[in-house]
Queue: 4 jobs
Job 1
Amino acid sequence: MTFAIHGLAVAPGIAIGRAVIAVNSRMEVVHYFIEPTQVHDEIKRVRRARDTVVEELKRMQEDLPADAPHELAALLDVHLMLLQDELLENGVKRWISDRLYNAEWALTTQLELITRQFDEMEDEYLRERKADLEQVAERILRYMRGVASPVAPPPASPRRAQPTLTGLGEEFAEDPLVLVANDLSPADMLQFKSSVFAGFITDVGGKTSHTAIVARSMDIPAVVGARSASQLVRQDDWVVIDGDAGVVIVNPSPIILEEYGFRRRQVSLERERLSRLRHTPAVTLDGQSIELLANIERPSDCEAALRGGAAGVGLFRTEFLFMGRAGIMPDEDEQYQSYREALEGMKGAPVTIRTIDIGADKPLDKGQRENSVLNPALGLRAIRWSLADAVMFRAQLRAILRAAVHGPVHLLFPMLSGVGEIRQTLAQLDIARSELDTRGVPYGELKIGAMIEVPAAALMVRSFLKYFDYLSIGTNDLVQYTLAIDRADEAVAHLYDPMHPAVLRLIADVIAAANEAGKGVSVCGEMAGDVAMTKLLLGFGLRSFSMHPAQILAVKQEILRADAGRLTEWARTVLDSDEPEAICSGG
């Protein structure tokens, strides 16, 4: 019988294959009391299992392939941190010693106690981390019980007859597999990456869950939050994963299979066709040269940026160097090596390095001050966080200045909101230079820029231009703060609207002001990589776009088809409208 399951679309694409049902990681736990003489042995049993898991995850880190997504390494760090957390370990020991619970019972009891605290957190990202803690405990339980990893494919079994696949081509000559699970840990995802799975489905998870993050970075079709998928789908069922619509179709009919098979081939052909544009200059029909840059998180991302045809890096998110490290900050030398590696990886192309933007949806794992406030997005984050810790901030500035000896560096400051913050920030940069002078350490020249992410900055753009060489518009936060929408909150996520007239007017004004001043301006948020927005931004006068490397070629195609001069008047009409989205399709 054909039926559909609806979830959240988190990684686009189409996957078709036989279902592999992951072993349920939530195993039954036997509850019994132990004798006082057994306490030592029970504690030792838990510790031995915990240590085994720690060693396994460390081996996985060491064996990570060079092209492994950076998010995966960071999430493995989070799991290692949780495994060695004193709250978990001491709580388990107390349940065993004081209550005489058996080891499994003590572990699950302490797990339940801690996860309640996660449930009470208002921040969605932190609530999602409850799943990380659960997976850590379940991994320990598996070792105590001798159960295999939930991602291991089942033993080979005779294929079920599948006449509906006729005519779909040689790509289905050998049955592909899709994974169906309640949830997947980062370690499971690592095994998943090197396996034969073409896509995956999970019962739980949201757009900010680790499964969603890693799936997007791997470019694997995925649907999460599909409720009871792991119970409704049977082993070896044929499944279609529509990662664009967030739909899972089980036991599809021949007509449905034919349609999705066709769509899958079209996506593949489109990607192949776009790849031919890699070396084509990004020039509009009327001869306007457009700069296409890449957003990166790690130096290793430079390879993908060059492969995508990027003319440089428009945003190096340095906070990812600080995350997943159990609160241990990278020192000046470590940061310098990372920035130098990025510059050398881009082979002389400019690299825009943004200072650390910690807070809101990007917290550090441990000891972060923003956890204690009600709304981290409005708290001590980004440049505020840096100015509150001048020693840490200047270490980063010195590392960036030193790296500038090896190539063109553009320094970018996030979330500035007024002249007072600008002066404080630039003063710290001057001190960092003086400190390097005192040490006799060489450093290079920088172009200095500011991100326009809050309405205050957009409204004061002409004041900002007196202090900076260029501007970069962070549309994700600008939309959030202009509309007072927490984009991570599902209750109001539908109100997050990049086409809102207020948002468009702020963006257009910033671009116009920078162009009038003869200074550079780029867009580095999601809007830059959205092909539906390309012509409108060109009409506003934007000539520099920065995006995920995978989006560059599709945006380039839009640019090659556009006449920037003729788009100006149309963009002004859109800007003057109270309902710009209704007329935007006329471009």
Job 2
Amino acid sequence: MPAPIRTRAPLAVVVAALGLGLLYPLALSLGGAFVDPSGGVTLAHLRAVLADPSTLRGLGNSTLIAALTTALAAAIAMPLAAIGARCSFTGKGALSALVLVPLVLPPFVGAIGLRHVLGRMGALNALLGIDVDWLGDGGIGAIVVLQALSLYPVMYLNLSAAFANLDPSLEDAARCGGAGAWRRFRRVTLPMVRPGAFAGATIVFIWAFTELGTPLMLDFHETTAVQVFNGIREVEASRRPYALVAVMLACSVGFYALGKWALGRVPPAATAKASVTRAERRLTGWRALGAGALFAAVGGLACLPALGVVLASVTVPGQWYGTVLPAAFTGDHYVNALSHPLAAGSIRTSLGLSLAATALAVAVGYVAARILVRHRPRAAWALDALVMLPLAVPGIVLAFGYVAMSVRWPFWGEGAPLAAFASVLGADPSPFPFLVVAYAVRRLPYVARSVAAGLEQAGEDLEDAARVAGASAWRVQRRVVVPLVGAHLAAGALLAFSFSMLEVSDGLVLAQREAQFPVTKAIYSLYERLGDGPGIASAMGVWAMALLATALLGAGALLGRRMGAVFRG
């Protein structure tokens, strides 16, 4: 059936919002790669980019980083998920929370701590009494380790769900058939959890392939994302940045399709519900000790970058060099993080941007979730895909799309009506409207998923009763629906706000002037300065970790077991 009349206006609003905030910037990014100076269609820009040795090195490095990061994250997450979903042991609750700690530390911030720990004059070499360049000449190894330690929780959440939903009767049948433990895992368990592995691996791979902040913080510039970032200033005069973006997006889609073909096919048995509920196996003795040790070891390693950031935030400038721990401590960096003009200004900027973006994401996400759950229009699958699309679009690609939008009418050119309202480049840029929309679009899926979960749980009976009693549509929403899904709405808003505060790609690309820097770009700028700059940047990183941890704990308390679905692919 066509969507009811009462649904068409909200549906049009959602589609228009995502069309202008998501599809249009993407179309500009891609279209610019195929337009010649006369306005015709050409492949010359793509050929020129693909013939450039530096571009090919960037693509090769990005692909290698993404592949190694995904493999390492999977190697870390697979045993944790298999044990966590099937077994119980003493301390499992606390240790399971420990392995999720990296969710509160973006790789961008963790790079600060990693340099202090693994640098040539870092804590590890001082502890071991050796002189090893752990970061390597190019930094690829450090980037892979840091990103894997930050992103393996995404794999862990997806694999845990897959293992928990696995029908134990299939493994029992294989056991009765004489299959050993390894053969059962390889021939039965692994194919059944393959869709979950694909979901997590897709997010990790694309994230690592398009990551901008971590390579920048580790001074590694030969990746495609960094090359796009360095080409922003050329966007008016050159089509090279457009071609780079098109190549990056094409590679992301190609890798996704390859992964879908290799891992994403669902075995027929996986579509059926489990006939038997799995009971957790209680581990005791050395087995419990080994499981606990595995969780503790992974959690401890994952916390090393965070520990490095914390120590750097309390170190007197120049007093953590060639020693295991800082030689002198201070709390001044935390004070300066709230009073330094750049740091304090960036916090105010990010607060304003994030609040505005959260309000926009909540409004659009609530309407979208309600249409999908309550009204279910004919093209519900298309609307759902559109709402979730920001999770799959690389942040650097979308950010570049806003730059491309800013140099076109009505934002650019003589007599452009919105030139004073929003701009990225030029003599007097005003990037805030673009940043608000970018933040809102990137975090919209979190709000929509959270609200949809609440609506599915609430049911429609109370809404129907209110309508029968004569309540208007607005009154039903205000007095019935919103209170019912209030916890889920608050959780989605909390996640949208906290992740907007720590958004990397949009802030680095769209904010060109120091007075307009959000928190993440201020951290990057301060870390590059001498004196107390790195200390202030570290203190800001600790504030950021505290904010994100608080947000995740709050959202977890509100959503309960549904919390993991927000981060699953």
Job 3
Amino acid sequence: MIVRSLLLIIVLVLSGCKGIVDSNKLAIFEPNTSESAGYSDNHDLWRIIAENQAINVDENPRIQSHIDWITQRPDYLASISKRAEPFLYLVVSEVEKEEMPIEIALLPIVESDYYPFSYSHGTATGIWQFIPSTGRMYGLDEDWWHEDRRDVLASTKAAVQYLKDLNQMFDGDWLLSIAAYNAGPGRVQRAIDNNIKQGKKIDYWSLDLPKETEKYVPKLLAVAKVLKDPDRFNQKLTMIENKPYLEPVKLQSQFDLALIAQWTNLSIDEIYSFNPGLKRWATPETLPYTILLPVDVVDDFIETLSNQKNRPKVSWTRYKVKEGDSLSVIAQNFNTTINQIQSVNDIKSNLIRANSYLIVPLAREKEGYYSLSEIQREKSRLNATKNSEKLIYKVVSGDSLWKISNEFSVTINELVRWNKIAPKAPLQIGKELVILIDDKEKTELAKITNTGIDINRKIVYTVKSGDNLSLIAQRYKVKVSQIRDWNDLNEKDILQPGDKLTITINVVNSNLS
């Protein structure tokens, strides 16, 4: 609580705020606790959310544009409903517990489409899209085994508390609070201060905010409105029952996920999907650890756990240290951590002797079995070439994500997601970036490839400091003479930074895959 209170002070100091916003004409939610008693009469969580909304706003073209977008996509909410089903009751419960507007339970739709492995903006992850710094402020930690920001229960509790603190900061205005969740409280407060100086209104709709934030709140309000009458907006919602789907179970020892799968008859993919914070083949070594399991398997799991309480939950092997071995090498080879090896073998330093023996944890199954572990998901990402064409671009002097995104007609967020990089981190010269051509284009290219027909794609390249035709030709696997022909250049022409060159890439037969 002390940390959260400090947030209010820190943000105000850093943003140079003159004071907290005035409460005139703000979007304030007044909780009606009597409604909660009636929730049990309704069996569909979507209907509960639709009928108990508390953030009331007037019609607005920014909201309507998002309603129109949803209406044109009849499968939109149905696909989200499928992903949200295991988690929606848990999220609604946490929101209700703090007497917040029930619409807050829809924020993960705006943030991540309720996809638990969502990763964007270089560092944000999980259904609530916490960045590391804010996550740490609200107790979301990460270690080799586990990522709290992707843990649905932990991140939901943290998100609710963060939004509650933001709402306190902005005097009960939920539109400003939600905007601050997206843009940061300092950014919203500076926009308010600027409007005060200019004698303008300080409600959300009147503020000069980043484009993403100007769309963010209307997206939430659009989804909320569509839920009230899905048929009218061309949506078919799958019912989600108003009862727990998952139940938290506290584990007092580290567990191989393969053993949990065996005891519960769940697939390994289901275990990872319900517990997306798990990064490896086992639960964390730090105890206790709370895992989420479907309600209908919990009793059997606990009974088996009681009957097998003395059985090791993680397999171990006796390893003979070889010449040249180190704890880091051994830990990497056995997919574990140095700390765990040190702890089990009661050794304090990193020094180990050849021909001595160590006890190290050993996964019950081969690496590929743990299909949604962080390592396997990374492999899948790098090998995802069936539905897309992949270009490897090498960074040169003067490059930025903005320049590269313009050059290849992709977005900065796509570059960030494809390459798992921070959007504001400087690009190192020589770094290779993956650039993907969209799935639709790939599908058409696959048809063309089967007929043996080539297809070319033109790109516009902006000349950078230090560039020459030879370097550019090498980068795009073309000839210098071709670049000259395409751009009407002769041998005496000298390239200048900022010049635009048209380059034709043979998409099917070039080195794009």
Job 4
Amino acid sequence: MMSTNLPNAPIVNEFAITAATVNGSGSQTANHAIVRAIFRMGIPVNGKNLFPSNIQGEPTWFTIRVSARGHSARPPVAPILIAFNPHTADADLAALPAGGICLYPDEGPWRPQRDDVTCYPLPVREIVAASGFEPRMREYAATMVYVGALAALIGIELEHIHGALLHHFKGKTQPAALNFAVVRAAWERFAADYPAALAARRFLLEPGGATTGKILLDGNTAAALGAIFGGVSFLSWYPITPATSLADALGVYLPRLRTAPDGHPTYAIVQAEDEIAALGMAVGAGWAGARAMTCTSGPGLSLMTEFAGLAYFAEIPCVVWDVQRVGPSTGLPTRTSQGDVRAASFLGHGDTRHVVLLPGNVAECFEAGWRAFDLAERLQTIVFVLSDLDLGMNLWTSDPLVYPDAPMDRGKVLSAADLERLGSFVRFADPEGDGIGARTLPGNPHPLAATLSRGTGHNERNVYSERPEDWKANMDRLSRKYETARRLAPQPVEENDPDATVGLIGFGSTEAVIREAREALRDQGLPTSFMRLRALPLGEPARRFVARHRRCIVVEQNHNAQMRDLLRIHCPEHAARLLSVAHSDGLPLTAEFVAEAVRELV
């Protein structure tokens, strides 16, 4: 989308950059080095990677947003273009606004054909040939040329790029020094060839302190750390984008954080043959008393249906992380979406209703990592956590992670001493009226402890039964447990505007988009309130929020307005008030799109 001409005055700490490259060219290292260097300068920044579902050779784009105001939604336009893919360069250039800047390789086949933007050719091959890289590695070093040229163009401090490269190479000085030499050479060459660009920078970074005390992290790594601090001891998984990096992060951190003094691991990681087996293993480990989890995306979730029903009805705790991507079917494997809301809520067969956590930022991914286990064991049920590719795989500026300050909630687990004191054990009795029976774990030596978990019909003593009254009593008790979950699940976060008659409702990674859209709407005379849902089942706070506003617009990244429909089920008396901005094209939403859609609805 073309924008109006850019202002003539320098733009400071509030602009975006698009790097258009080829997948497998080393651009991820280059782009992350830029993001981390800007973060180290004390400037809020985040990066969004739009990559293809293949290994090498296809187009990929990476958008870096610098925002002193702290905005992190996908920008609708980026005034700086790094055009390092000749196959997409014409379309990439066409999206550049008038007054924008384009960096491109001088020796390549492509030449820009616009006179309303400023273009800087870069002698990529010459710089790389003079570096210390072996010939077979020079293709990967080429991306470091645009890192150096961009650093000169907008004022990225070289010391921070060097620090970012050391971070990427995990402190290995030789590869970091080799890449940094290319960056420095490109910086010096750009400064020599285009001194006017440095003397009067159009886009400028000014160091600050806005990132002091902050961290730069992706949601999948935060989720893995949260699970570790929540006591995870078993992971079963099958590779699938975009959840694989969550399992990878557990594989990195568990050996460092969960190894006994004698050197033996206190955890197990198993790569299953498919997603069916992955959840089956997690359910078995949960039954045995482990804090067990698996991670997947939409297609894997589909395969887990039968075991999800078993865990629900046999009342076995475990956790499933669903890092969502576009569906149906295998869909768009490397594009982001929020399309599994309905599936996760009711996954199974018959009358299943699940607890679903909806983290909205990196810090909440960490929180959900440990809280999901507490809820699963307290409620004796499977708990789903819905993240998405944008939140899970991209770098975000975040507040520090808040570590759990309370002991693990294992729920109603009876020890041998408990059984001796009670004198009896009825697995699915509900004396407290919360729908949750007491359980025992394998290995309990008391003769009353043994119990067989089954997915078939049973009475409160867990004895097989097809009697209608036993089935109904069991389902009624499970309904009481679901009502208990309404109280225990994380409650929504509200930001109410006293002048607002319109409420915006979102969940997950739409938080940043809605916040920015609200600012624009307020400037245009339309104040709004905001409620961010943090979990299912929904409770009274959601009902009250809807009741307070003339219109409530649910913003979500799927095609069929799934969360809007769940809200209508939750409060049918207010169904007419609930409208939808539901959109899913694989790209993260922009604040401009949301603000315009809201204006059209009200």
